[in-house]
Design brief:
Layout: E1 4-8, H1 15-18, H2 20-26, E2 32-35, H3 45-49, E3 54-56, H4 61-74, E4 79-84, H5 86-99, E5 105-110, H6 119-122, H7 134-143, E6 154-155, E7 164-169, H8 196-210, E8 217-219, E9 228-230, E10 241-244, E11 250-255, E12 259-265, E13 270-276, H9 278-283, H10 285-297, E14 305-308, H11 321-330, H12 347-357, E15 365-366, H13 390-393, E16 400-406
Parallel strand pairs: 1-2, 1-4, 2-3, 4-5, 8-11, 9-10, 14-15
Antiparallel strand pairs: 6-7, 7-16, 10-13, 11-16, 12-13, 12-14
Protein name: Purine nucleoside phosphorylase LACC1
GO molecular function: copper ion binding; hydrolase activity; S-methyl-5-thioadenosine phosphorylase activity
Keywords: Acetylation, Cytoplasm, Endoplasmic reticulum, Hydrolase, Immunity, Inflammatory response, Innate immunity, Metal-binding, Nucleus, Peroxisome, Phosphoprotein, Transferase, Zinc
Length: 413
């Protein structure tokens, strides 16, 4: 299997010092990179003699390793062997944690500084605190990257009153560059190639555009169920709904075909957010969120308004017949072609019906059935230029979110 080999000159390791066994092992690798940075750009003797390797000599280590990641991704590699020193490993692991995910495998082969053979390396190892300032350096670098796919764009519902801030993100204006993640991907996981630092930068840009920076963003920890967390109580390990009456915090739910649903009570000033996929819909996560608002904060169901964000439409979403039966039991219209091998399923209609059965007024729901308001519920699979979609893009899909917060009054501010 092809791999990348990274030779760390910044922290004191060159081919002479790496030893003949390591050199012989990596000689057949076509993907060799020299991490020289700005400091060694012009004065390391090995740079002029190694013509086949790609030199990473940007002004910061963060930029060097980001360039490495871009090249590794472009060449469809996932394994990186790093030749470095003990201190170099300690520092580079920190960059790895910020700029890569578990989709990449790093193997560190370490040479002690005491055993460095050449004067160039023995005098080049850093003496400062390992890893000091790495996170800030990475953040500053990412903030300087240009936005991809245009400016940040957010959909808002005219049903939610102005005493709340809210929106549904789209895929433009972020810095994620992988085709299925570009560019405003707002969630990082072990199996995808978008690291935590990049997602954090995307979230920062969204917050600045939407007006909630630097308020903390509380994103539900999805388990495709109906558990709801009341913010302020002990946080469960996973949940698909969140409710609060606190100002100064933003609640959010992810979606990439699944529905991000926002709930707002303008009378009691209580908000909620829920992630409703097909499983969560059948388990009743939308009404579970409403019930938490009623039980915990005394809301009246008739006061609550609901906005359903971008999600997969019945046009693009199919399930096995056995799974579709659960939606037929909600209402036959939720499955327009029940005799098909894979029937189409309308999860948005299913949630509307369940919410109305639970007491939410029909006119208090903004979804794709509403035609007299600007749409906030387009089909994610049908609009690749605007939204991420698991159905369309496969397992390395990006994530958009619906977000909501209670605006502070002038007195609170």
């Amino acid at each position: 299997m092809s791999r990348a080999v990274l030779l760390d000159l910044i922290h004191g390791c060159c081919p002479t010092c790496a030893g003949p066994s390591l050199l012989e092992e990596s000689a057949s690798d076509p993907h060799v990179f020299l991490l020289s940075g700005k400091r060694h750009r012009d004065n390391h003797p090995f740079l002029s003699s190694c013509r086949s390797a790609q030199v990473l000599d940007s002004d910061s280590t963060a930029e060097c390793l980001y360039r490495l990641k871009q090249t590794v991704d472009r060449r469809d590699l996932s394994s990186v062997t790093v030749l470095t020193t003990p201190q170099g490993r300690e520092v580079l692991v920190r960059y790895q944690q910020l700029l890569f995910t578990a989709a990449y495998t790093f193997h560190y082969k370490v040479r002690s500084v005491d055993n460095l053979a050449c004067p160039s390396c023995s005098g080049s190892a850093h003496t400062g605190s390992p890893g000091e300032g790495v996170q800030e350096e990475v953040s500053v670098f990412l903030q300087q990257l240009p936005a991809l796919k245009g400016d940040v764009t957010v959909l808002t519902s005219t049903l939610i009153p102005d005493c709340f801030g809210h929106g549904f993100s789209t895929r433009s204006g972020g810095v994620s560059y992988a085709p299925t993640l570009s560019s405003m991907n707002l969630f990082s996981s072990r199996g995808r190639r978008d690291p935590g630092a990049v997602v954090a930068e995307n979230r920062r840009r969204l917050a600045l555009h939407a007006g909630f920076h630097p308020k903390p963003l509380h994103l539900v920890k999805v388990n495709h169920g109906s558990d709801v967390w009341v913010l302020g109580k002990a946080e469960p390990e996973s949940y698909d709904g969140i409710v609060t009456d606190q100002t100064g915090v933003v609640v959010a739910a992810p979606g990439a075909d699944c529905m991000p649903i926002l709930f707002a009570d303008p009378v009691s000033k209580v908000i909620g957010a829920a992630h409703a996929g097909w499983r969560g819909t059948l388990m009743g996560v939308a009404m579970a969120t409403v019930e938490a608002m009623v039980t915990e904060f005394g809301c009246k169901v008739s006061d609550i308004v609901v906005a359903v964000g971008p999600s997969v439409g019945a046009c693009c979403f199919t399930k096995e017949r056995e799974e579709a039966r659960g939606f037929i039991s909600i209402h036959p219209d939720c499955v327009p072609d029940p005799e098909s091998v894979r029937p189409h399923v309308d999860i948005r209609l299913a949630n509307r019906i369940l919410l109305q059965k639970g007491g939410i007024l029909p006119e208090h729901i903004h979804d794709d059935a509403v035609t007299d308001r600007p749409s906030v519920t387009p089909c994610t699979s049908c609009h690749p230029e605007l939204f991420f979609s698991h159905v369309r893009d496969g397992p390395n899909f990006g994530t958009q979110v619906g977000f909501l917060w209670i605006k502070e009054t002038a007195e609170q501010t």
